[in-house]
Amino acid sequence: MAGQGQGNGLRGSARWRLGAGVLAALVLVGALAAVPEDEQQREGCSGARVTGWRTDDRMTREPARYGDDNSRLDDWTGGDGTRSVRLPDGRTLWLSADTFLDRVNADHSRPPDAVWVRNSGLVMSENGQFERTLLGGTDTRPTALFPGTAAGDGREVWRWPVQAVVEPRTPGSAQQVVRVLLWQREAGQPPWIFGVPRATEVATLSLPDLRLEGIAPVHRPQQADIERRVLYGTSAVTRGEWTYVFGADEGSVSGKASRAHVARVPRGGLADAEAWQYWAGPADEGGGWQDDPAKSQPILVGKTVQRGATGTYAVVRHKDSWLLLTMDAGAPDGGGITDVVSYWACAPTGPWHGPGRVAKPPLPEGGASAGVVPYNPQAHPEFASPTGEGLLISYDVNQLGSGEAIHRNVNFYRPRFLRLTLGPVR
User: In 10 A of CB 241, how many CB atoms?
Assistant: First the structure.
């Protein structure tokens, strides 16, 4: 497979070493600010907070069941970057970033030279069982579903899928497709061990067969300061005739604050770069929604631009409010990632109030002693109860260090799930 030798070498070295800078890139740190009740009323929504949580063991067992099945050796056995979208026929498409394939041994270890690819898709049946893995290439030589390229000097350029949306093929069309937001990154030197951000792209998958039709560039950041380049797609929420696409820059890679951004696109226009509009700050200050991405301004999280969100936060609607979920370092230096926290707003542009405590995600058995950490909490509202309660969220786990543990125990690199109960802010 193209790039396989390079990738295997990275697994045993820098690719799996999450130092302080990368740990910071997995978190959102917010100012602990109480929000007066009269301010909530002025903003016109009830707010949203997490009132309780429990582990969803059935959901956690399902990817484990599928990954442990050795009837095929060209399908998913572990991955991260977990996102999902409900398809019109009741199936669910799950998207995974770096993905292990190959065999799982009887002791739940994987071969040290296990095949891996930069991304994949998984199809879940209407009854909640994973059925197949979507890849490129052939049965004997599988490759990433969304293929990578190479930079002019030969460095690897890959794509990581983030949120997906089912929308009309074009605005007003009766035909629907799946649009998958992609982060394009290229190999770099520390601190860019997870790649230098290059562009946001949108892939189109046909329905119902989920065939990759093409990939369109929609945003290529031009900042000379790499840390302030914004990639969009960590969340995408359709509300009325607009899809709101959330993103962030990467300032926290070196311990600085990262900043959250938001764009909006008419339904059916995600793959059309000309249709995107970017939030440029309050309209009465000359901002509002602008066509020029260079005018995009950070949205306030925790009431100050100095505390922001990285690229792995999640946003959902809850009744009349917006809810944002992220890992919280608990300290400005990014130390001690253990907890999920929440923020709420009455509009996708904020201001976002919080943080509120959510949960301390449990690790797999033996994970703490192996240096495993949780990260990337993502919401899956399509799995809520019929009344809209019981929000399902996933979180990924990985090891701090050389990465030997995720070969020794496949459960150290598989998503896990919690079920949240939500209520208004009091």
Answer: 10
